[in-house]
UniProtKB/TrEMBL annotation:
One of its GO terms (molecular function) is protein dimerization activity. It comes from Microlunatus phosphovorus (strain ATCC 700054 / DSM 10555 / JCM 9379 / NBRC 101784 / NCIMB 13414 / VKM Ac-1990 / NM-1). This is Putative two-component system histidine kinase. One of its GO terms (cellular component) is membrane. PANTHER family: NITRATE/NITRITE SENSOR PROTEIN NARX-RELATED (PTHR24421). Keywords: Kinase, Transferase, Two-component regulatory system. It comes from the Bacteria. Residues 233-432 form the Histidine kinase domain. Signal peptide: none annotated. The keyword Transferase applies. The keyword Kinase applies.
Length: 432
């Protein structure tokens, strides 16, 4: 429950940050477009007024510019704050030169003729641009973030190519702040309302998932208990039925063999063979009974339980491997997880005893945040190439299915020996 609420809050926080970034970006784009639009309209309105007198003047290379007349023409716009700066450029070959400005110090400044700018001015009435940080804008650099340039092409009465450049106050940053002040609270409030409305749904969903996980764990536990009960029941049936019958059969054969003088030699040999087969089957069945019934374990710590399990599984076999158990810290496990762990370890140990021809087997249990890992490795002949098709390996397939049903994973890995032999199984199970 607490984890679900934490995940929901983290998701909402991430969404708030994302929405803030997106709204800020969209606001800047909108504000920039709006600032350019307003600056273009202002520049167009101003130039419509002043281009009449400018077009009638003689501003060619041989003429003397009437500064007083031009200052008087632009004064109303500059003094009212509609314009911040004015420059009139004359095109001279591959250069443009300032022939008038409200700042006389820039008159005579030259710069290369810009064909791209000329093409844009030919295609539209005005061209709006940001103020660049260049030496020719040395008197506007400190206000560059609050100004936009507006260009308009015109000719004087002699046909001289001229450019009127006016600087219009327009702050993209200020416009962005205004847009954000209106758009961001609405966007964030809507998202917060939505997150508050969906929080109960998220909590209910988390509870449902938790119940499903608990039900699955309970099913795994019940399946393991049922399997263990079935094994115990089968062991009891074998002990009380077939084992006793075989033992009785052996006794009867012994009694018959006691009358050796009444038997033909061939019959005696058959009875001796039957007696040997009965003894052999009885020994094998008693060994299976030990496996089916499971070990009687007095230890309560996991290391002791696994050691007892290994001792019981190897007690009735010849040439069995030496089993080493390493459990540095006894992990806290739910009963179902503990039972599953022991069941899987038992199956892997049985596989090492029956199929691997191993000399040593190592069982190591480690724990981490939220998980417990079990490593079972041996120095035997390794896993079969086609494990799922090999007879006698159904237990491994069932163990894998049980681990996966409990939310874990069982991986069959190559051995660690230098020649590539051996086998390793790595089990990962969730724990509280």
């Amino acid at each position: 429950m607490r984890r679900a609420v934490t995940v929901h809050l983290l998701t909402v926080t991430g969404a708030l940050i994302l929405v803030t970034v997106l709204v800020a970006g969209a606001s800047w784009v909108f504000a920039r477009g709006e600032a350019f639009r307003m600056a273009g309209q202002t520049g167009l309105a101003v130039t419509d007024v002043v281009l009449g007198p400018l077009s009638e003047a003689d501003l060619g290379p041989e003429a003397t510019v009437d500064r007083a007349a031009l200052t008087e023409l632009f004064h109303p716009f500059l003094s009212s704050g509609v314009l911040y700066r004015v420059k009139v450029w004359r095109v001279e070959g591959d250069e443009a030169v300032v022939i008038y400005s409200d700042v006389p110090a820039v008159e005579g400044d030259r710069r290369p003729y810009d064909p791209e700018l000329a093409a844009r001015m030919a295609a539209q009435p005005t061209v709006v641009a940001m103020v660049p940080q260049t030496p020719e804008h040395r008197y506007e650099n400190d206000q560059a973030d609050r100004l936009l340039e507006v260009y308009r092409a015109f000719t004087d009465r002699a046909g001289t190519q001229l450019r009127l450049e006016v600087y219009v106050p327009a702050s993209v940053a200020a416009t962005t702040r205004v847009v954000l002040a209106h758009a961001l609270p609405v966007s964030l409030a809507g998202l917060l309302v939505l997150s508050a409305a969906t929080l109960p749904l998220a909590v209910r969903l988390a509870r449902r998932v938790s119940r499903i996980e608990a039900d699955r764990s309970e099913l795994v536990r019940a399946a393991l208990e049922a399997s263990e009960a079935e094994r115990t029941s089968l062991a009891r049936w074998l002990h009380d039925g077939l084992v006793q019958h075989l033992a009785t059969t052996g006794v009867i054969i012994d009694l018959v063999l006691g009358r050796a003088d009444q038997l033909e030699s061939a019959d005696r040999r058959l009875l001796e063979q039957a007696h040997a087969l009965a003894d052999e089957d009885l020994t094998a069945l008693r060994g299976k009974l030990g496996e089916l019934a499971g070990p009687v374990v007095a230890a309560t710590d996991l290391a002791g339980v696994v050691e007892a399990l290994a001792a019981e599984l190897t007690r009735t076999s010849e040439g069995v491997p030496a089993v080493t158990v390493q459990v540095p810290d006894d992990p806290e496990l739910a009963p179902g997880t503990r039972a599953l762990l022991l069941s899987v370890v038992a199956e892997l140990l049985r596989n090492a005893v029956r199929h691997a021809a191993a000399e040593t087997v190592t069982v190591r249990v480690d724990q981490g945040p939220g998980i417990v890992t079990i490593l079972v490795s041996d120095d035997g002949q390794g896993w079969p190439v086609e494990l799922t098709e090999e007879p006698g390996h159904a237990g491994l397939r069932l163990a894998t299915a049980a681990v996966e049903a409990a939310g874990g994973r069982l991986r069959l890995l190559p051995g660690a020996a230098a020649d590539g032999t051996g086998a390793t199984a790595l089990i990962t199970l969730p724990r509280p």
